[in-house]
């Protein structure tokens, strides 16, 4: 099968999966009260829906909530695939004091917050993946090549520790360790939170200190947390630092320090995330490499006098990556769903933290159903990308 046909088939298979998940979500949606359905679709008016019958009627008409289920389903499908995912209920976040959510002016579309916060999660996921690739693949390959030697034993111990040590515990230990290393009682770097805790945790978007008046931020960042022009905070901070002068009274390199501070605030949670995943991926890489090194074509290459380094790098290495690519692709997809515990532990903006607080009382149904759709799209697209890469690495897959 030609590679183009293989890709087309995989893309077409996305459609029934997406429709199936959206259908299940719609059926679950029918089980909640009408007021909650209204609040998920439309901005909740002051006093609630019972005190605003006209607004209630308009919302019911707009989304077909007073029409047969088949009509509602059609409207729900249309809204889902046109990214009309409903509205946030700020009340759900007030008691938890989540910056950015409270700044989202009413009415606030769920998509507005997702567009603002998803790039933070993507940056954290990308940094975590870089650390994983830099550690897991070399360690796994060395452990396979030097099987049962000290490096293999060390990799095994590292792997077991990664399985045994949960991320939230490792994160808490690292925060305490860094706080002691910096010295307790110092002031926060950019005024996130008072004390050293503010140097270690807290979202960078609230860390501009005394050089910007209270409640204000640099021009590239709005109150919700969205940045411009690219939408990715680190890139936009670097662009802003390169094209603007620091605020009055600030040091000459202040804006560069702000961008660097953001990267450092991502580094510690990225290490926590990568630690546990490397332990898993390392085992896959090691076992795949061992399996490939025992195959006939490796023995043939060695018998022809091909240097061992070339055998490992070019013959065994590529062929051992099939399973690893699958695991890495799906791991990155799960990463994009947010790191609920880690983001909350380090007080970082991100969709995982946003969706976690949506399920607390009072429940934000609009955000919950939007997150279901978003996660489905991410996982399905990740599966397609993994299949395509898998087909490229191993042409035999295209035949199936």
Would you give an account of this structure?
It is a single chain. The chain is mostly helical and 400 residues long. It has 18 helices and no strands. Helix 7 packs antiparallel against helix 15, helix 15 packs antiparallel against helix 18 and helix 17 packs across helix 18. About 4% of the residues have low confidence.
Largest sheet: none
Number of helices: 18
Shape descriptor: globular
Gyration radius, rounded: 25 Å
**Share of helical residues:** 55-70%
| Oligomeric state | single chain
Q: Structural class of the secondary structure composition?
A: mainly alpha
Order of helices and strands: HHHHHHHHHHHHHHHHHH
Beta-strand residue percentage? under 5%
Ends apart, CA distance between termini: 9 Å
Question: Average pLDDT, to the nearest integer?
Answer: 77
Number of strands: 0
Low-confidence stretches: 185-199
Q: What are the main properties of this structure?
A:
400 residues; single chain; mainly alpha; 0% strand
């Amino acid at each position: 099968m030609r590679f183009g046909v293989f890709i087309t088939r995989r893309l077409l298979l996305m459609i029934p999966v997406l429709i199936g998940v959206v259908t299940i979500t719609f059926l679950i949606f029918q089980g909640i009260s009408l007021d909650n359905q209204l609040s998920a679709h439309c901005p909740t008016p002051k006093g609630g829906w019972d005190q605003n019958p006209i607004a209630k009627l308009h919302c019911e008409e707009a989304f077909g909530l007073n029409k047969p289920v088949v009509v509602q389903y059609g409207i729900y499908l249309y809204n889902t695939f046109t990214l009309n995912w409903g509205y946030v209920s700020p009340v759900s976040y007030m008691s938890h004091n989540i910056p950015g959510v409270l700044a989202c002016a009413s009415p606030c579309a769920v998509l507005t917050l997702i567009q603002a916060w998803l790039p933070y999660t993507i940056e954290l996921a990308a940094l975590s993946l870089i650390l994983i690739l830099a550690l897991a693949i070399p360690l796994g390959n060395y452990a396979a090549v030097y099987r049962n030697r000290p490096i293999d034993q060390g990799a095994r111990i590292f792997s077991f520790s990664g399985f045994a040590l949960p991320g939230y515990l490792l994160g808490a230990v690292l925060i305490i360790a860094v706080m002691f290393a910096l010295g307790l009682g110092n002031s926060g770097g950019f005024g996130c939170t008072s004390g050293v805790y503010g140097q270690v945790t807290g979202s960078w978007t609230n860390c501009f200190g005394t050089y910007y008046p209270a409640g204000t931020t640099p021009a590239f960042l709005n109150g919700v947390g969205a940045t411009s022009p690219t939408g990715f905070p680190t890139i936009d901070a670097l662009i802003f630092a390169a094209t603007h002068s620091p605020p009055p009274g600030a040091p000459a390199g202040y804006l560069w320090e702000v961008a660097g501070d953001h990267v450092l605030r991502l580094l510690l949670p990225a290490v926590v995330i990568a630690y546990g995943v490397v332990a898993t991926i390392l085992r896959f890489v090691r076992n795949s490499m061992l399996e490939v090194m025992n195959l006939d074509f490796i023995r043939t290459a060695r018998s022809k006098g091909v240097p061992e380094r070339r055998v490992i790098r070019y013959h065994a290495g590529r062929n051992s990556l099939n399973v690893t690519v699958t695991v890495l692709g799906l791991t990155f997809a799960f990463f994009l769903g947010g790191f609920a515990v880690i983001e909350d532990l380090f007080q970082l903006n991100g969709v995982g933290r946003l969706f976690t607080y949506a399920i607390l009382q009072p429940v934000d149904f609009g955000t919950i159903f939007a997150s279901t759709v978003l996660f489905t799209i991410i996982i399905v697209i990740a599966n397609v990308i993994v299949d395509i890469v898998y087909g490229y690495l191993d042409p035999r897959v295209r035949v199936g």
